[in-house]
Amino acid sequence: MDEAVGDLKQALPCVAEAPTVHVEVHQRGGSTAKQEDIKQSVRKLLNRHSIVFGDYTWTEFDEPFLARHVQSVAIVDTELKAKDPQPIDLGACTVVLHVFQLNEGGPSSETLEEESENITAASHWVLPAAEFHGLWDSLVYDVEVKSHLLDYVTTTLLFSDKNVDSNLIAWNRVVLLHGPPGTGKTSLCKALAQKLTIRLSSRYRYGQLIEINSHSLFSKWFSESGKLVTKMFQKIQDLIDDKDALVFVLIDEVESLTAARNACRAGTEPSDAIRVVNAVLTQIDRIKRHCNVVILTTSNITERIDVAFVDRADIRQYIGPPSAAAIFKIYLSCLEELMKCQIIYPRQQLLTLRELEMIGFIENNVSKLSLLLSEISSCEARGRS
Ligand SMILES: Nc1ncnc2c1ncn2[C@@H]1O[C@H](COP(=O)(O)OP(=O)(O)O)[C@@H](O)[C@H]1O
Ligand SMILES: [Mg+2]
């Protein structure tokens, strides 16, 4: 119990006591250094920088041990709730270090065989995965979407005992993100899985992300489809049985389930369709009570989503199109990246929206390009609304 309390203090935003600052330490792929030794060196580095300004990442180190074993040290997520970067006195904060190495393997496919046909039923990553590195930071939202999701799922995971599955405690972790296509819902699910794996690494040694391919599953009808779904979830159950793993099941675009049901009702699909949908829903109900499972779902349509699904979601979050300010921030980070790789050369100075505000949007040599970017972002936002 003491351990759980310790975890909670680290993971939840602190209200009364010193605020918590999370530091993600990316250990190099080939490094076999002990996490404790790395943490000790990182603490020394942080002690030399008592005040930081918002999120900050170190990628170069004077100390040879850090240079050899560590790719980056990043103060993260301090800007999730604050509108602008705030000065942070590390000495007055509870600093929590999360050391992680990335799995470079890429996804593996779970295929299900049905007579002569093979269908790719799911893709599977071991987290934290190289593929999703930086994804969380690249996603920009106007409201506190990211911090709400992170806080909610972290709390529910930490409040349940790692080793006790329960039907009694209503701490279900079924998340539904809905909204127009292209607003980052699928990306956010994957980024959240990666973030939680790193954040909770003292409790779960690694993460598993299984993305169920709804399209292939529901676009092909076999007499045995229901059984195939059961077989796939049996594989997922094997992953869940390892209580050191945090298991994320992503069911993207759940509206394909609804479509299957409706087609069935209209008589245009055989009744196998409904059997498959029901099999999936039953399996979700079965696995969601396990305390190391998070079910992530998305839907591109908001109004017609299957009630069976809406009812199952414990947290529903609408993800809308980005505002002009968010579009500006996305473009700015893309341009910075292109200049860093020297695809855009020579480097141009770009101001943030906050900096533009501070100079009263006055045009001069320094602000010219940023003002143009701000104009483009506003046009884009108007075009979408
Ligand atoms: N708010 C956002 N901030 C940054 N990138 C975004 C945002 N929304 C979408 N994207 C980018 O657009 C692409 C499509 O996103 P995706 O997750 O497939 O959207 P959806 O699942 O909502 O259709 C991805 O490359 C994603 O990173
Ligand atoms: Mg999507």
Poorly predicted regions = 1-6
Number of strands: 13
Q: Give the helix proportion (percent range).
A: 40-55%
Q: What value does the Rg take, in angstroms?
A: 23 Å
Element string (H = helix, E = strand): HEHEEHEEEEEHHEHEHHEHHEHEHHH
End-to-end separation in angstroms reads 50 Å
| Biggest sheet record | 7 strands, mixed
Strand line-up in the sheet with most strands? 7-8-10-11-12-9-13
Fraction of residues in β-strands? 15-25%
**Count of DSSP-assigned helices:** 14
Bound molecules: adenosine-5'-diphosphate, magnesium ion
Q: State mean pLDDT (0 to 100 scale).
A: 85
SS-derived structural category: alpha/beta
Morphology: globular
Task: Describe the model.
With 385 residues, this protein is of the alpha/beta class. It is built from 14 helices and 13 strands. It has helices at residues 2-11, 35-47, 64-69, 135-138, 145-159, 185-199, 214-219, 225-240, 255-265, 272-287, 307-312, 324-340, 353-358, 368-384; strands at 20-27, 51-53, 56-58, 70-76, 87-89, 94-100, 108-114, 117-127, 174-178, 206-212, 245-251, 293-299, 315-318. The strands form 3 sheets. A 7-stranded mixed beta sheet has the order 7-8-10-11-12-9-13, sandwiched between helices. It has a 4-stranded mixed beta sheet with strand order 3-4-1-6. α12 (324-340) packs across α14 (368-384). Residues 138-141, 181-187, 298, 322, 330 line the site of adenosine-5'-diphosphate.
